[in-house]
Amino acid sequence: GQNIDQPTEMTATEGAIVQINCTYQTSGFNGLFWYQQHAGEAPTFLSYNVLDGLEEKGRFSSFLSRSKGYSYLLLKELQMKDSASYLCAVRDWGRALTFGSGTRLQVQP
Amino acid sequence: DAGVIQSPRHEVTEMGQEVTLRCKPISGHNSLFWYRQTMMRGLELLIYFNNNVPIDDSGMPEDRFSAKMPNASFSTLKIQPSEPRDSAVYFCASSPGTSGRSTDTQYFGPGTRLTVL
């Protein structure tokens, strides 16, 4: 089975940098995903890591360490529209994703 | 291109009634997933199909829930009879279904918000 942990809530200031951590324990691993979900909307894909290291996509970066069962999502130059929940999800050897409970990020002016 | 389409967007029903949720995946995608999201339990996988065949239904709560995928462009999730604890947002997602170490990203539909009174 899978066990995924991430902080429940975080607060940050507009223009700042925030790091959202995710730790996981899994019986099989075939990739880690980050999704963004605004209130009342569907999750949307942000990033994917399957090998160790950092993947950068504009203001968003995601890091993975498979040996430590650890990932983080880094958001730079925070904007008010970044206020949302951020979901960490792990894929096993099938195609199914197991999602963490999500981290609700509040960006303040 | 159209994304994943779900209907209805909102459904309010009374306990004991049958509920049918519908999903049209992205054209060309081979895998389809049904999820349920609640405040208490987060986003949970109910069932997924690959090439119209159910692969893993271990997340289906009980016999009151059933899912079908009669063809590559349509799937249904049925709850019969419905109960108040089934109230949740139900998401359908699809992915290309490629194998190996590929992204095979899942794209979510807008969801159906179900309220069972």
Which secondary structure elements does this structure contain, and how are they paired or packed?
The complex is a heterodimer of chains A (109) and B (117).
Chain A: E1 2-5, E2 9-13, E3 18-26, E4 32-37, E5 44-49, E6 53-57, E7 60-65, E8 70-75, E9 84-91, E10 97-99, E11 103-108
Parallel strand pairs in A: 2-11
Antiparallel strand pairs in A: 1-3, 3-8, 4-5, 4-9, 6-7, 7-8, 9-10, 9-11
Chain B: E1 5-7, E2 10-13, E3 19-24, E4 31-38, E5 42-50, E6 53-56, E7 65-71, E8 74-79, E9 88-95, E10 107-108, E11 112-116
Parallel strand pairs in B: 2-11
Antiparallel strand pairs in B: 1-3, 3-8, 4-5, 4-9, 5-6, 7-8, 9-10, 9-11
Descriptive report:
The complex is a heterodimer of chains A (109) and B (117). Chain A is an all-beta fold and 109 residues long. Helices cover 0% and strands 59% of the residues of chain A. In chain A, a hairpin with a 5-residue loop joins strand 9 and strand 10. The model of chain A has no long low-confidence stretch (mean pLDDT 94). Chain B has 117 residues and is mainly beta. Chain B has no helices and eleven strands. Chain B is globular, with a radius of gyration of 14 Å. In chain B, 36% of the residues are buried. Classes of the chains: A mainly beta (109), B mainly beta (117). At the A-B interface, strand 5 and strand 10 of A face strand 5 and strand 10 of B.
Q: Measure the end-to-end span of chain B.
A: 36 Å
Helix tally of chain A? 0
What is the count of DSSP helices of chain B, taking H or I runs of 4+ residues? 0
Q: Main β-sheet of chain B: number of strands, strand sense, barrel status?
A: 7 strands, mixed
Strand residues, percent of chain B:
over 45%
Oligomer: heterodimer
Order of helices and strands of chain A: EEEEEEEEEEE
List segments of chain B where confidence is low: pLDDT < 50 over at least 5 consecutive residues. none
The Rg value of chain B, from CA coordinates, equals 14 Å
Rough shape of chain B? globular
Largest inter-chain interface? A-B, 21 and 23 residues
The N- and C-terminal alpha carbons of chain A lie at a distance of 40 Å
**Mean pLDDT across all residues of chain B, rounded?**
93
Biggest sheet details of chain A: 6 strands, mixed
Number of strands of chain B: 11
Order of helices and strands of chain B: EEEEEEEEEEE
Structural class of the secondary elements of chain A?
mainly beta
Radius of gyration of chain A, taken over Cα atoms and rounded to an integer in Å = 13 Å
Shape descriptor of chain A reads globular
